[in-house]
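Predict structure. Input: START domain-containing protein 1, 283 residues.
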Amino acid sequence: MLPAVVKLCCGISYPHLRSMAGLQRTAVAVIGQEITNLQRWKQIRQHMKAHVGSKYNEPKSEDIKPAPSKEDQLFYVQQGQEAMRIALTMLEDKEGWKVEITETNGDVICSKVISGARKVFRLEAVLEASVDELYDLLFVRVEEMHQWNPSIQQIKVLKHIGPETIVTHEVSAETAGNMIGQRDFLSVRHSCKQKSCVYLGGAATQLESFPPQAGFVRAEDGPTCIVIQALDEDRRKSRFTWLLNMDVKGWLPKSIVNQALPRAQLDFTRHLRRRLTASATLG
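Output follows.
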């Protein structure tokens, strides 16, 4: 299934911007190294086709998640890593961002127009949760997200590609006031841990055995990413940075889409805070 650019716009200090940029450069370098190690995947894929062939298992209505072939693993891991690299590069580029929304609780959303005249949105917030807790909620237990986020009807993991990469199918809920309407998404999601920081990246993908579903408009995510960074002054809190990059498809006017997406980010963050508060109360 992230944010702001200059300290005046985002309410964050120059040292934090330098720290954030350093973390992003580190992540890009690490992911770049991973991709370099996987650049032989095409040759491996050609070799394996002679022995394995290309076939996918049909996803069932039950929670059956067949193990992907090695060539699938290489393809989806590379796709997830590349999506994260591109998204982090967008975050690192400080030029062209404009403030869209500033909330009284300190949350800030900025936007930027990218190639194709599409807007991407960066949300930056501080959450009362550790990096590990947020990683668990947003990646490890992603299938449970509908339990605390009413904007989501369902998220199902179709493929597990090791501990860091998954392929998911997501259906948005039919909620009152939803200007965009119900959509479904088929996405590859990739995670990367770097000391006190977690990176979650993703992008739309394709699966021959899971074509667009009847009755839904299939929207496309990405490249998109979330950066979760522990605060130096309090490791029980995290800086949450979310780059939202989405093509909702359909025939909606850009003006409607550009109003709805940042509001969806604020709604998601509000629901996430409620889930964290409930967990803290039960704990």
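The first helix runs from residue 7 to 10.
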